[in-house]
Amino acid sequence: MRGATHAKWAACAVTVALAATACGSGGGDSGGSGGGGIVSSSWADPQNPLEPANTNEVQGGKVLDMVFRGLKKYDPRTGAAQDMVAQRIETSDSQNFTVTIKDGWTFSNGEKVTSRSFVDAWNYAALITNKQKNAPFFGMIEGYDRVHPESGAPTAKTLSGLTVKDDRTFTVKLSQKFSTWPDTLGYAAFSPLPRTFFTDHAAWLSQPVGNGPYTIDSYAKGSQMKLRAWNEYPGNDRAQNGGVDLKVYTDNNTAYTDLLSGNLDLADDIPSSQLKNAPRDLGSRYINQPAGILQTLAFPFYDKNWGPGKEKLRLGISRAINRPQITEQIYQKTRTPATDWTSPVLGEQGGYKAGLCGDACTYDPAAAKKLIEEGGGLPGGRMTLTTNVDTGSHRVWAEAVCNSVNNVLGNDQACTVRPVGTFADFRNQITSGRMTGPFRAGWQMDYPLIQNFLQPLYYTDASSNDGKYSNQDTDRLVDEANAEPDTARAVATFQSAEKILARDMPSIPLWYQNGTGGYSERLSNVRLNPFSVPVYNEIQVT
Predict the structure, then answer these.
(1) Could you tell me the pTM of the whole model?
(2) Which of 11, 53, 265, 443 has a Cα-to-Cα distance from 416 of 20 to 30 A?
(3) Residue 304: CB partners within 8 Å, gap ≥ 6?
(4) Other Cβ atoms within 10 Å of 332 Cβ, number
């Protein structure tokens, strides 16, 4: 946090070494303020319309990162939270904050970005009747319990902790101390919204208007979204190209083939079957770098076969997975077996602790089989592992996980993969509570804090707690850590909460994931940020 009184602790993200640039021949459509051509990039349809507070998955997040700018922005190299629309954020007690925004910011429709642009957006996000998936991110602002009650109708429509002072100043009162709260404000859910979002919501959804370096030109679901550089963008991170065409692929092998054949400029997810070939195929245009991504298997606690009382079963499955073998054979040095619930990019001071999961994440066939038997065995003698199969080579690793479990149990039909054709359908099934067994639940950090790897996923009723896990001790420790101003004590408290996860195993940590990608000879200055998302605005087309 920056301000009169600085926060005493903040999780650190390491500077990531990124890919070298390359240049070559080729053209492209003319574009906007970047003065260059159009970048074509692989993509998948987002789960929901692109409301900032209703987007909590990667594909929609890529678009929001281009179309919006919030109070903070995360450095594309280090992940550090830096002021963007914020002039300053001040506090003297880590609970009451005064936010001053910079002058000169506008939305792409010409409307001025003011304090009310933020306050109205946050009130909309928090109000339960608006059904925004990211509403819990506003849960620490005073008055949240009235606009978003656990049951029944809201008794207020706006957060009492938000007050507009003037066009450039507003205040925020939290319900408890949260020393690093300002560092969360680079997350897209906290983006400002123009008046048209509220006055003509349907029109805004059909073509969202933001304040970022790109505008949305068109979107054809299942085909592509066209974004173009905004000539009047007031920020200091203007687009260096004319725009980006996000092309929908339901198979990343097809995207890779198109990249090699010159029909695609950028693929930010190399299929596992091509990882051994990518360095040779692409040379210096192959990207392989650490990222804040953790792949896990989550369990549906709303299903009696997998929830409370089934700890030994879940632990047994974890111990039946041969992580070192799977990562070595499939992923060609782009994955590392996970031993905690965070990411190495945080560093030890930021909360990463190798080995925190202990034996629970260690492959041991004999112990695994014994735990599964003591836990009552697989429900009906079988389990299905559900994953989407359109991106991420997920079917390949899911089958490898099932094979590992089957080998331990001596039954090649004990675990089978249930494929879902598209990411959007997969997410809809999860959020509607239709999982009947373990399911893919990879996490890409929203901001580089240990808190982000724990609270959204394992706090009771949190925004991304898809398995509906709940433990009062976990909640209490997260609350205590958020209020702690001392770095070391805060991290230690979060890690105490993690140790409960090692006992309960609400999700199984599988591996830490590198960001991979490749790009054509038309492009230069290509990199992934620590979130494994291309830094689209910096890409140049030659």
Answers:
(1) 0.79
(2) 443
(3) none
(4) 18
